[in-house]
Amino acid sequence: MEAIKIEKNLDKKQLLNSQELILKKLISCDTTSSKSNLELINYICDYLDIFKIETSKVYNEDKSKASIYYTIGNKKLPGLVLSAHTDTVPVDIDQWSYNPYELNIQKDKYYGRGTTDMKGFISIVLALTPWVISKSFDRPIHVALSYDEEVGCIGAPFMIREMSKNLPKASCAIVGEPTLLKLVDGHKASIGLDTEVTGYEVHSSLLPSGVSAIMTASKLVNWITNKTEENQNKTPRDLDKLFNPPFTTLHVGKINGGTASNITAKKCSFTTDIRCLPLDDGEKIIEEYEKYAEMIDSQNKDIRPESNIAITRHHWVPGLKPENDGFADSLVRKITGENSTGKVSYGTEAGQFQEEGYSTVICGPGSIEQAHQADEFLSIDQLNKGTEFIKSLINEHAN
To answer: Which residues, 6 or more positions from 346, have their beta carbon under 8 angstroms from its beta carbon?
Structure first.
């Protein structure tokens, strides 16, 4: 691990320097969701070991990835959870002006993959460790860092369940996704479906005696398109109007199939992404889709019994529901001084914390517009403001 000089009473310059060193290391770890995040996790554990802070790892099935959680303070008391994910989306090197895995400082901005989403937030929390320890707060701080958020929020539920088992229920959880430090108290659910159609191959001149997987898939895609249009034409409810767009969307993002233009396709598969409003029933939507697919499948089987339609759920990330002055909401409002709240259409792990009984909101440094982009950056101003926000959050909650 790169040496980091730690002073308990950090001044602003020392804090910025330590944050830069930490952020530099975090960015250098390629934690694309398709790869292991253990280099980064082990670095964080080594860093925390300097302060004799014990970490708990929650591995994935093949132990190639891990989430970690740890506590600063009395583990027997309920505390405040600060949450982030460690994985990032892939990069297209040709689109970047800089090496995405080297921290580059240009015009008061930190450039690098994950600076905004969400390694900047993690660097703040880690850099504040000696400050938190020196204050000896009455209530503990819990930090939760997950894997595989970017591919369906897969890792967080296992970690959250372990935390619920081994720690007193925290009073609230703050998920530090980039919101420009504005309070976000609601987001849509994210549902991922995989549909695989099996047809029966014949020469295209004998079309009626075969089953085309592609043409069958087109009927299903058409149903998905019509469902979105149906949702769009509904009169939005008051809560719906706070989201952009103010309706539940269904979208086919990938499709693959076929052998040749003159052969009925034996296989066709596609993925569907559903972004479901908090007041809409995602289960009902899937049941309607499955019922339609069963009807089409039955028609195909009358022609060729070998044909089939299989629908599986890739992921289901619950939405975050506004809590109407819940503890997390009130705490962040008090610090930011804002009365308004925001709603977003993208998914986060916040809904998973909320499902386990944590009062939860989203608030973190940086702009979501920079997330997943080439030349991703976090401004130094947002890093500094994020640091002050987290310090105020801890002061307000822990004293």
So the answer is: 187, 188, 190, 275, 368
